[in-house]
């Protein structure tokens, strides 16, 4: 039976865009809950700082991408590069519309502008939702992920309900206002049950590779820890808004924070997703400069791949002293690592250390 410990794949599958966005949302939700409970007395402009950082990173990433595109004309010949550039411009445009909504929301909350309707504030979100419908078709046609676009396009009715309820055009209970979210959560729960059942079937199958079993197990656990806390959060939030429970917002938001933590963890296994903030160049710079210069121990540990096999024949375990004497370990550095004579009494498994680019 073999046991494998591989940190290198974790860093290779890391998606910095998702990690960064979910961290910003985590901090923002926590600050907003504390503000609503009057635990902190600061301006809403301070509460929204994590969102400003998110949009600032998106804008910087777009500027860097445009600069690279202009300095390298041969990228325009490649079809994939053109699609990546268009996707970057589209994603940045959506982020700027979202920034407009956040600015108007923050201004209305801070200054209590009663003359400004929430329907007017939600206009950028309505625009994003309508545009996202066409962008989903374009993304699927070009084989790109469209998680943000799908989220916006499927929640257009929810945004309308929110705006009407906040302006008191309708006096429905909040549990009715959240009906579109309940429908989406029910669909998500059905998908989670399907993934769990499929994972259990694959685990009992002997024809499936171990790597596929591991990926399906990670997906099932990740989806469970994302969807279930979201359902609990919506139940607590509707009870709080309908004044059924007098629970503070800090406790209400805990399930949402748990879902965001699960999303942060799954970002380490999301290499296939798109870099929606165009953070490829920023990520490469951070990897080269920070990890290789200032944290060499992380650089060393992040490139270790260790496999231990328990079912090994005795002939492979007992080797002669002459074979082990001055045996070198393959390494990408110029000077190979030499084993001393103290290792002659036992067997040493070959270890490969690969430094990043």
From TrEMBL:
The keyword Transmembrane applies. InterPro entries: TM_Fragile-X-F-assoc. Signal peptide: none annotated. Keywords: Membrane, Transmembrane, Transmembrane helix. The chain crosses the membrane at residues 19-36, 43-70, 85-104, 116-140, 174-203, 215-237, 249-268, 289-306. PANTHER family: FAM11A, B PROTEIN (PTHR13568), TRANSMEMBRANE PROTEIN 185A (PTHR13568:SF6). This is Transmembrane protein 185B. It comes from Helobdella robusta (Californian leech).
